[in-house]
Each structure stands twice: as C-alpha cells, then as structure tokens.
Design brief:
With 242 residues, the protein is of the alpha+beta class. Helix content is 19%, strand content 17%. It has a single domain (23-236), classed as Sandwich (Immunoglobulin-like). The structure holds copper (II) ion. It comes from Lentinula aciculospora.
C-alpha cells in the first residue's frame, strides 16, 4: 500500500498532467501570411505552412508578410487551388505598399481534427499564388499521400486558381469574424459569407480582386446576397468594410 506522501505526490503529478492536457487542447498557432522577398519561398507562402492543431485550437493568421493581397481559402487535396464547397475563406486582404499598423489578423478555430485540412491563397496577380506554393495543411500526414509535400506538388501542377468566395464557416475549421483590424489602406475584398457556401450556389464564378485593389470579387447571386447581409451586420458592429 502507498504511503500518504507518495499518494499525494501521485495526485499532484496527475493534476499537472491534466493541466498540460487541457492546455494542449487549446493551442494558439501563429501563421504569417506572405513572406519577404529575399527568403526561400519568397512572398508566396504561409509560415509555418504545415502544422498540427487539436480541436479548439486557434490559428491566428497574421498579414505581416511583404505587402500584397492574399487569402486563406479551404480546398481539397485533389483540387488544391479551387475553393472547396462549404469551405472556409478569409476573403482577399490587401496590404498596401509600406504596410499597415497593426497587421490585420484572422482567427480560425479547429472544430474537427480527425481529418486533414488543406488551404491555399487564391490571389492571381502577378501569377497564381497557389501554384507558386502559397498553400498550407493542418493535421496532414507527415509523408506520402495527403501530406503537405503531396498537396504542394498538386498545387504546383495547377495552372488555374478558383476565385469563388467561401464562408467564415468551413469544414473542420471556422472563424467567427472577418480579418481585422483594417487600418487605413488595408482592404478586404470578397467578404466571406457568415454561413457555409456550397459550390452549387456560385463558388468559382467570381473574378479576382486585383493586386491594386481596383476590382471587387463578383460572386454568384446567393453568395453576394449573403455577403451583403454580413457586410451590413459587420458595419453595424463598427467594422470598416469595402
Ligand atoms: Cu497570396
């Protein structure tokens, strides 16, 4: 039989274990959107581009790379540069030359860690960012089919990049707000819908937001309707949107 002292110590160790476990369940992972000119991968990348995250973990995408226009858009392994039906989407966030302070952030919460999550940037200018390697994975196998490298190779062979506008709510991960704050000069194009958007309701029909930010993304009618409702809601909450 254990002495009371050893029993107490065991209990303390068990408690510490539980605390560590709870903390592991609620990670915060910082991902830089866009890189710098002079680094490997250049300005078309997510950093880190591949990581694991348990349910409840928050992925904070920070638009802190070289100024430009980027999105975080969910796709599928076999179709890496096409917005996935009912996938998450940040919309395009344009950071003007010279950058802004503070950098806009987008928080994505993992809701299903049992399947890999794949995402890409749908910006086309000056060349499709997806094919240039601006892709990422969450909870993907470390090697072989479905791994980050497998997904990246698929993306690099893709000439086209879909421009459909998705939603804050995706498959296996969801956001509760659009990217923000948007300091003077930072602009959100193709505002994501509040609720899931299926491919049949217009995904893939919009045009790209230009690097200069002069054109807006024109989605299918249902998506546009959803976006307007959301923009109204967001505006009423004091969030500046274009
Ligand atoms: Cu990009």
């Amino acid at each position: 039989m254990k002495s009371p002292k050893i029993a107490m110590r065991s209990l303390a160790v068990a408690c510490l274990g539980i605390v560590a476990f709870v903390q592991a369940q609620n990670q915060t992972i910082q991902v830089q959107v866009g890189g710098t000119e002079n680094e490997s991968g250049g300005i078309f990348q997510f950093k880190p581009s591949s990581f694991n995250a348990t349910n409840g973990s928050v992925i904070t995408f920070e638009f802190s790379g070289n100024p430009g226009n980027h999105s975080i858009t969910q796709s599928a392994l076999s179709n890496p540069c096409q917005p996935m039906s009912e996938g998450f989407d940040s919309g395009w966030v344009l950071i003007p030359t010279g950058g802004v302070t503070p950098n806009p952030l987008w928080n994505l919460t993992i809701t299903d860690d049992s399947n890999p999550i794949y995402f890409f940037c749908k910006q086309l200018i000056p060349s499709p960012h997806c094919a240039a390697g601006m892709v990422g994975t969450v909870n993907a196998p470390s090697s072989g089919t479905g791994s980050f490298n497998d997904f990246l190779n698929n993306a690099k062979q893709t000439k086209d990049s879909g421009q459909g506008v998705g939603a804050l709510v995706g498959q296996g991960a969801s956001a509760s707000a659009v990217p923000g704050p948007l300091p003077n000069g930072a602009t959100l194009f193709g505002t994501p819908a509040a609720t899931a958007v299926s491919a049949s309701s217009g995904s893939g029909t919009s045009s790209a937001a230009s690097a200069g930010g002069t054109s807006s993304a024109n989605a299918g009618s249902k998506i546009q309707y959803d976006s307007r409702i959301f923009a109204l809601l967001a505006a009423s909450m004091g969030i500046a949107l274009m």
